[in-house]
Write a structure and sequence with these properties.
This protein has helices at about 15-30, 165-170, 185, 205-220, 240-245, 270-285, 295, 300-310, 365-375, 385-400, 405-430, 460-465, 480-485, 490-505, 545-550; strands at about 40-45, 50-60, 60-70, 90-95, 130-135, 140-150, 175-180, 225-235, 260, 270, 320, 345-350, 435-440, 525-530, 535-540. The protein is of the alpha/beta class and about 550 residues long. The strands form 2 sheets. Strands 1, 2, 3, 4, 5, 6, 7, 8, 9, 12, 13, 14 and 15 form a 13-stranded mixed beta sheet that branches. α2 links the parallel β6 (about 140-150) and β7 (about 175-180). The longest helix has 28 residues, at about 405-430. Mean pLDDT is about 90; it is low at about 1-30.
Length: about 550
């Protein structure tokens, strides 16, 4: 089974350089950068603080890509907070995406799921963003939706085809922004121990990039027709985790006004001691002592990435550094900076079907094997086999029709992303400020015998990008989806989802007339909007097993 999320082989220096060179050569051999066409004419020139931009117009949307919001993060800027971008003279071409951060290289030639491939060259000069803005004039500025990409904290970019903001901006009448930022060892290596004060928040450099992007939005988005006083941040998977974390960062306060967390509710960040231990391994890899940051800044990009690929799943993620993140984010309560921010949070029904190894999804012979598989796949919360056995008995009593494989996915999904989504909603409600709204995306793809609502499956619905090709299964295609859904209910669901998401961005309430009121989450009713072929509101989703899950 192939899925979006896979374990990939290490990327060494030679393959990193060859891959980057191949993409650069392909780009140079193609159409001249910036040349307009009949289908992609010039968009109006827009003025920013750094200089003027000219993008392209597609249909009713102006598109401006590869806009720098920060300077290159290479060399003496590596591990430091983002620095301002340089100004430019004349008009800058904004027709092409910018560089993604260094990460595992994917190409159309070697990776079959093209919706997840950014063919731009990778570089530490990666602090750039993209804007989709409706071309039609309005009397009042439009809501702004700033998307943070998934891929955990190790890969991804705002330039992936599946994140194209055209349809969301067009159907929702909003300004859409997608962002590239530092990742993995470049964005989340906490080198503060033994270093000077400039590196105190090095483990949160990637998060500080996102804050710099939001500052750029505040300063410039009005020139694109956007309302800087009505900004929603949203993201899926790692992007949702980045949103969760930004809600606990004081420097982000006031830069956004609503938040959407899709399959990425994250309740804690990495303790500084754990982050220090990872950094010590990196210094040792290069025969350096902790604190020798200037020497680490001089390591070639590919060599530093190769070190990351050898860290064997060592955690590289936002850090509780006492400065950029002064306290744990959502534990034991909602962060104070989130109290006034309306929150929309949820997950897909079968998240872990996209993460669990193919061997674990094969037919399971008996309950002993099932318990072993849940324990292996379930992480720290499900590490005790006796606890797992009791949980399995509860689920089987409440959901007797599920196969062992379905129980594996159900329990690991519920104990992970569903539990975290509930936790954010409950703690936001307990804070007594802005409301939280809970959803679950339940539409099942025809892939894998049509039984899973996989992790990330909500993205094409929310962006309105349905012709994304094979992205979860080699047999997947729009033709396959159309054949499985001849009434095209998925198009209706997409339209409803876009309406809900953009209405939330516009007003702080995701209710739409077609589905009636969507009440905020409360412990008494636990309202959940179930996004399926026929979206509907439920009270107390999986209530029979929820207490046991929340007690883990």
């Amino acid at each position: 089974m192939s899925t979006v999320h896979r374990l990939f082989p290490a990327l060494n220096r030679r393959t990193f350089l060859l891959a980057t060179a191949a993409v650069w050569a392909g780009a140079r051999a193609g159409t001249v950068v910036g040349a307009p066409t009949a289908d992609d004419p010039l968009a109006p020139i827009v003025k920013t603080r750094q200089g003027r931009l000219q993008g392209r117009t597609h249909g009713t949307i102006h598109r401006y890509k590869g806009i720098p919001y920060g300077a290159s993060t290479a060399g003496e800027n590596r591990f430091l907070p983002p620095q301002p971008p340089a100004a430019w003279r004349g008009v800058r071409d904004a027709s092409q995406y910018g560089h993604p951060a260094p990460q595992l290289f994917r190409s159309h030639a070697t990776y079959p799921f093209h919706a997840w491939v950014d063919n731009e060259t990778q570089s530490e000069d990666c602090l750039c963003l993209n804007v989709w803005a409706p071309a039609t004039a309005v009397k009042t500025p439009r809501p702004v939706m700033v998307w943070f990409h998934g891929g955990g904290y190790s890969r991804g970019s705002g330039g992936l085809p599946i994140y194209d903001g055209q349809h969301l901006a067009e159907q929702g009448d909003v300004v859409v922004v997608t962002v590239n930022h530092r990742l993995n060892i470049f964005g989340y290596l906490h080198v503060a121990k033994g270093a000077d004060a400039r590196f105190a928040s090095s483990g949160n450099a990637g998060q500080l990039d996102l804050i710099a992007a939001l500052q750029w939005v505040r300063e410039n988005i009005a020139n694109f027709g956007g309302d800087a006083s009505n900004v929603t941040i949203f993201g899926e998977s790692g992007g949702g985790a980045k949103v969760s974390t930004l809600l606990g960062m004081p420097a982000a306060q006031g830069l956004f006004h609503k938040a959407i967390v899709q399959s990425g509710a994250w309740t804690e960040v990495l303790p500084a001691a754990d982050a220090d231990a990872v950094a010590a391994r990196v210094f040792a890899h290069f025969a350096l002592q902790p604190g020798q940051v200037q020497a680490l800044q001089q390591i070639p990009t590919a060599d530093l990435y190769a070190c990351f690929s050898q860290l064997q799943n060592a955690p590289l993620a936002p850090v509780l550094d006492g400065l950029a993140i002064p306290r744990q984010t959502w534990t034991p309560a909602a962060p104070p900076y989130a109290h006034d921010i309306p929150l929309l949070v949820g997950n897909t029904t079968d998240e872990t079907a996209a993460f669990i190894d193919a061997a674990l999804l094969e037919p399971i012979a008996d309950d002993a094997a099932l318990i072993a598989k849940i324990t292996k796949a379930g992480g720290k919360r499900l590490a005790d086999s006796g606890q797992v056995a009791a949980l399995l008995a509860l689920y089987r009593a409440q959901m007797p029709g599920l196969s062992r494989t379905q129980l594996l996915v159900r329990i690991t999904t519920d104990s992970g992303m569903w539990r975290n989504a509930l936790t954010l909603a409950e703690r936001q409600h307990a804070a007594g400020g802005a409301p939280a709204y809970l959803y679950e995306f339940a539409w099942t793809t025809p892939c894998f015998a049509g039984q899973w609502a996989l992790h990330a499956l909500d993205i094409p619905f929310m962006f309105g990008n349905h012709d994304y090709g094979a992205s979860w299964d080699p047999a997947d295609s729009q033709a396959v989806r159309d054949a499985a859904d001849p009434q095209h209910d998925y198009l209706l669901l997409s339209a409803q989802m876009i309406a809900m998401w953009t209405n939330f961005a516009r007003t702080g309430n995701p209710s739409i007339a077609a589905l009636g009121a969507w009440p905020a989450y409360t412990p008494e009713h636990r309202y959940t909007m179930v996004l399926d072929r026929h979206a509907h509101l439920m009270s107390g989703l999986r209530e029979a097993v929820r207490p046991a899950i929340m007690a883990l």
